[in-house]
Amino acid sequence: MYKKAFGIIETLAPLHVGATAGEESGNLNLIFRDQFTQTGIIPGSSLRGRFRAEMRSQVDEKEVSYWYGEGASSEQSEINNESMVKFEHASIVWLPVFCPGQPIVWVSSPRLLERYKRIAQIDAEIPSLYVASSNIRARESQGKKTIFFNLGFLNIIRSENLSKWFPNGKELPAVIVDDSDIAMIHDMALYRQSRVRLKDNEKVVDGGGFFNTEALPEGTILVFPIAIRDDKSNKKWQPFPNDITDEIYLGGLESIGFGHCQLKIVNRN
Prior knowledge:
Helix content: 10-25%
Strand content: 35-45%
């Protein structure tokens, strides 16, 4: 009934997808998070909206509506016009974290890798907890290997080749942590920026124009599944003009350099 594909996102700049205001009087811009791991996600609606906007620049609105359905404000919105392409949310596969001496270690957890394994159909067992990649640089003392983060250290049980768990097959310095640890490490890794809105005629904050923004850091790798309804037509979904890989902007704050990503579509059928 459905042809299956998935997308791989690698952030080339900090990525902010979330509410425009947080809980503290509108001065904290939070990102969307998975309810269980508390790690950042990109909702399927955000992905669909960006793909729709990209296709709109290539073809007419009728073709866009064929693949993505009628818009909510369309006169046809009351008609059951099911979209041909369906997007689930994008979840983190690997999160880059600053680590003195590395200087970056990519971190994941069993729950995140389990979703990636299901989507990409990886034929391998999920690595054990506190297993590191074979190319990680760890401090060794009394037979124990340790890597250090800003807020603590992590003991490594053993090292093994984790290249099959990276989308491009290139092994990066990486470690697997417990699902209960990933939320704390995720908060430590987030990109954060304080911003102000100044008055027009003087360098003074304009009212409540001081706010903070958080975003997924550059180098984050995410995955999301795609379902393409088979209607037995000869039409082919072509999200990008020339290839299956393209650079794209996701989320908000594009005008100040957020959201630049590389996105690759992989067909499973």
